[in-house]
Design goal:
mainly alpha; 2 strands; two-stranded antiparallel sheet
């Protein structure tokens, strides 16, 4: 048995796992918003006596918003994609080459008159 070698394979380091088809911990905001939506619907319907359809539609807003954010801006996208997109929408494209309307200034080259020089 002393000839047996143990090697780490790091096989579990490749994936953060998935729950309900969502990568890593992306299911947590969805579950929290679902619980908040259910609580909001209970408050609207039971405590404030709002019609069940109206309270259901109002309570669905946090859940649908969170689910849309997770599916369209986080799931399968690189890290920081959502922040980069929001920054692009708020502040514009930033520093980059502008192909239209960019003026190029060039200093004229120094010219020497070779015809007037004398050779000895």
């Amino acid at each position: 048995m002393p000839d047996l070698r143990f090697c780490d394979t790091n096989a579990a380091d490749d994936s953060a796992g998935s729950v309900w088809g969502l990568d890593g911990d992306l299911f947590l905001p969805v579950v929290i918003s679902a619980a908040a939506s259910i609580g909001l619907m209970l408050v609207l319907f039971a405590a404030l006596s709002v019609h069940w359809l109206v309270s259901g539609l109002l309570a669905a807003i946090p859940f649908v918003g969170t689910l849309s954010y997770v599916l369209f801006l986080k799931q399968g996208k690189p890290a920081g994609y959502d922040r980069d997109l929001f920054e692009l929408l708020i502040s514009g494209p930033g520093f980059q080459f502008q192909s239209k309307g960019q003026q190029h200034y060039r200093r004229p080259a120094k010219t020497t008159d070779l015809s007037s020089s004398s050779r000895s």
